[in-house]
Every structure is written in C-alpha cells, then in structure tokens.
Amino acid sequence: MRMFGTNGIRGIANADMNPELAIQVGKAIGSVLDNGPLAIATDPRTSSQMIKYAICSGLMATGIDIIDLGVIPTPALQYYVKTHTGVRGGVMITASHNPPEYNGIKCIAEDGTEFTKEQESMVEDAYDTDIQCVQWDCIGQIVSVDGAGETYVDAVISRVDAESIRKAKLKVVLDCSNGAACETTPLMMKKLGVDAVLLNCMMDGTFPGHESEPTESNLSELIEVTGRTDAVVGMAHDGDADRCVFVSNTGRYLPGDLSLALIAQHRVVTNGGGKVYAPVSTSSTVKDVVESSGGEFHYTAVGSPIVARAMMENGGIFGGEDNGGLIFPEHQYCRDGAMGMATILEIIAKEGPLDDLISKMPRYHSLKLTVRCPNERKELVAKRIAEVAEGNVTTLDGIRIDYDDGWVLIRASGTEPKFRIYSESSDEGLTKERSEHYRGLVEKFIEG
Ligand code: MG
C-alpha cells in the first residue's frame, strides 16, 4: 500500500488515521530499522497522544526502544535526532497545517532529515507483510526526556547574532497558531530580549484561534495588531512550526516568496556569495535578488526534502519554499520555523524595518490556478503540453516554459487529480493571458 505523500502519512483521526494503522506503521518502521532507539514527539492535536501510543506499541513489539520528547516543534525533534549519536531516527506525530481533525506520521532519518522516498517505500512494503514480533524479553522500552525544546532554542540562538538582536530592543507580535511551538518560540523571544505580544500561544489541538495554515486570511488578527501597535514585525508558525511567515511593521502580510528573498539576500551578502536553492515554482524575485547580491541561484523539483538534498549535495548556503519553509544548512537540513524567525529578527536589528527592505525588491505579477484532471490522464496531458509549448522548455518538475519576460509552470499534483498552472511576468495582462492559454490546452488534452 502507498501511504506516504509529500509530507508523510496523513488522514482524519479515527477514520483512515486510526490506532490499527498506527500500530502497523510502528511495526513496519521497527522491521525496517536494525535497532533503536527512536525519538518520538507530537503536536498538540486531540488525537496526537492516541496515535503516539499506538505507534509506540508497534515499535516496541518489534524490539525498538523509544525516547519520548513530548510536545515540541517538528524541527526540534529533527535537531534532537541529528545531535544524538546512537538515536537511529525519529517519528513526528503531526498533520502540520491541516484542519484539527487530521493527523499524520512523519519519519525522520538518523541524520535528522526526512525519510527518503526509498526509506518510505521500505516501510510501505513492510506494512503489507505479516511482521514478526520479538519475544517477551526483547520488547522495547519507553523513556521520557525533558528539555529537548530548550536545547533546540539555544541552538537556534547560537546561529544568529543574538547580541545585535538584544541591543535593538525589538517589539514583535507572535502567533503560534495554538500549535507545537507555544512553549519554544516565546522562550526564544525571551532569551533574545525581544518584547513579544503573544497571540494564540496556548497549546490547544482544537485550534480555537484560527486554522493552522499561516495564510493571510487566517492571520487577520496578527495583521491587525502588528499594524496598530509599534511592533517592528508580526510572525506566525504553522501547526508544527517547521514554517514561519511574517507581517511587516505597517501590517502588510508578506507572501512567502518575499521572506524567502529577504533572507536569501541577507545570507548571500553576509557570506560573500554562495548557492541558493528553491523549487521551480518560486517567484523570480528570489532569483533576481540572489544574483544581484553576487550569489548563484538554482531551481529544484518541488518539495522541501528535495531542496534540502540539493543543498546538501552541492553546498548550498540557503534554500526554501514560498510557503514559509526555510532551510539553514549550518543548523540542519530541514525546514525550521524558529530559525526563520530568529534570522528575520537579526535582519531587522541590522538593516531596519521590513517595509523599507522589501520596497527595493523587483516584483512580478503572478497567478496560480488549478484544472481538475483524472490521475490516469496526467501523463498524456503533460506529454502533449511539452510537445506544443513554445519557448524555453525545461522538465525538472512538470513543464516550465521560460520567456524573456516571465515563465509558466504546468505541473500535475502528486496527491490530487489536478494540474496546477503557475504564471508570472512583469505585466499583469500577459500573466493572465499565458495562464489562460495553458489552461485551455490542458482542458483540450484532457478531453482527448
Ligand atoms: Mg508544517
């Protein structure tokens, strides 16, 4: 059975994401690993403890010892696994930004990165087999360990210019979306001497503040409070805090490509050059600022583990996605929301308010639309599009057509029966015209 999507296994609690599945996934992971121990952590969803104990039960039945880190952000678990030799991997129980009725299982490899597709396939193959349990005297044991959250916070702080941040005496508004970072990120602000107004910073798996996807519409309170007060920035995490988004000092929500561009520019300038990686769907703003700052910009296929892998193999100094997923390689090769926030604080302390910095960046008109397409037609439609596309066509992920003044990306969704069409250019009308042109072609080829 194929279970892993782009972000682990996801489902609705006690429907498809149920204890029986979690026990079998636990046994499957246990049968794939030589031995333990494994670290486990959760977000605060109402089903997280249930799924955790079921998966622990399956793991222990195959002889795996478990270190229970409690409720902490996904990158804090990843940091624990990476920095504890002997810990063979990790399991995070979270559905990230999905609605509260969802939950999920994400597997972490020994180096703290997400499982590769090959490792996921091994677990999927084992899931369908009759997995042997160990005898009574070899059953795994579980121990709870406190303090992984604070160790992670201290590690993040050690990666930024904490002295400059403290000296700047910054005031911010922080929204933790009632999620996994409700203890760690306010602690980080305190340690950095930042005066933080806290919104939705009580853990609550029903997400009473707003839905946990950090979109502009979900963050209306953060936007309002940041704009109204003298805070220099508003910041928010998604539910498991591997991502972060920002609101400028005047209360303007920053699309993820702008924060990606801001940090990329800062890193390239500080480093005196270097390689930056982002998916083919990323706005040209990022490429432009990296290149004009003396850096090299490279596209990858879509997915944060793929960006992280490209950085690891080619010595990237920074990478990320336009959804607030930011990767800082000297810290760890995964998305890290607290690291993103600490870096933005450093940028503000040293370079000034975000509005001023952003106003200097090149901007484009972009559009994203989706077209429903049966899964079995996707391959044929993509092939036909590639045949008729005019311009500079590349197929790193989907079909990307580059023009002198913009680009279009036509990409089949990996999980849903649809195509996504992205269009960007310096002219609003042209952006729309091109996306409509390719929408028409996709629809025509679906028909046959
Ligand atoms: Mg997340």
Uncertain spans, ≥5 residues at pLDDT below 50?
A: none
What average pLDDT do the residues reach?
A: 96
In terms of structural class, how would the helical and strand content be classed?
A: alpha/beta
- Basic shape: globular
Q: Per DSSP, what share of the residues sits in E-state strands of 2 or more residues?
A: 15-25%
Summed up, the helix count is 15
- C-alpha termini separation: 30 Å
Main sheet: which strands, in order across?
1-5-4-2-3-6
Largest sheet: 6 strands, mixed
Radius of gyration: 22 Å
Query: What ligand molecules are bound, each kind once?
Result: magnesium ion
Number of strands: 21
Q: In which range does the helix fraction lie? A: 25-40%
Task: Describe the structure concisely for a colleague.
The chain has helices at residues 19-32, 48-61, 74-83, 117-127, 148-158, 162-168, 184-191, 220-228, 256-271, 284-292, 304-314, 337-351, 354-358, 378-388, 428-447, and strands at 9-12, 38-42, 66-71, 89-93, 102-108, 142-144, 171-175, 195-199, 233-237, 244-247, 253-254, 275-279, 296-300, 316-320, 326-328, 332-335, 365-372, 392-394, 399-403, 406-412, 418-425. It is an alpha/beta fold and 448 residues long.
